[in-house]
Every structure is written in C-alpha cells, then in structure tokens.
Predict the structure.
Amino acid sequence: METRGGFYITQIKQLQERIFERLLLAAGLELSGGQGRILFVLWKEEQLTIGEIGRETSLAKNTVSAVVDGMVRKGILERAINPENRRETIVSLTERARGMRGKYEEVSQRMNELFYQGFSGEERDAFESYLIRVRDTLVCEEEKIRAHTEL
C-alpha cells in the first residue's frame, strides 16, 4: 500500500509558510518563516547560541547563521561572542524584536485557527500526538546517522 504522509506534510508546510508570511506582512511584519521560528524561540529564552536555536527550530546551523545575519542587519537581533566559550555566538533580541511579539502572536493565533478549522479538541490532540511520534522517530534517526558519520 502506498502512503503519502511525508508528501502531505511537505505540501502543508509550504502552504502554511506562504499563508503565514502573507498574514505577517498584512500585520506590518516583514518576516520569513525561518525568521519567525527564530524569534519564537528567542521570545521564550531571550538569548541562545546558534546551535541551541538550530536544535529548537530544527533548522541547520548554517541556515540559522545566515538567517540571523539578515536579522542583525535589519536590527531585529544582536550577536555577541560568548565570554565563557569564545567559539560560540550568542544571539539576543533587540527592542525592535520585543515590540514585534504582540502582532506576531496575533498572526500565529489566526494561523492556528486556520490549521485546526473543523477539528474537535480530541481530533486536534490526537493529530498532534501523531506528529510528535513522527518527529521523535526522525530526531532519533538523525542522531543515529550523525553518531555513525562522526566515527
């Protein structure tokens, strides 16, 4: 039997990102999906290393670094060398980024309403539990692959 779960997830991700970016733009926030994910984790933690942001967002370190560079140029984020480990860069929010949070959360709420439109609470919870299982399986597999290639 042919399954298409991965294909559907990819389609949903692409549609969701396009709609989300349009909603952000309509709210006066010029942010890409990747920039939004980085801000989302920094609003919770205030400052993180590039590696920590990568783990929290599932973005590759080189992608995080490139996106952060653009956000620094726009005055949204700041970079600093970690005084405890000079090989690490610490990324933190600027006042401009802190000011974006309210509008961003409104757009996120609208996106959640669209995403779960027609779902009962029970269906939503079951769906999310399935997604978590798939994600956790893939994270474990990625860790195995990484461990194997680092040997």
About this structure: The mean pLDDT is 92. Residues 34 and 50 are 13 Å apart (CA to CA). The longest helix spans residues 121-149.
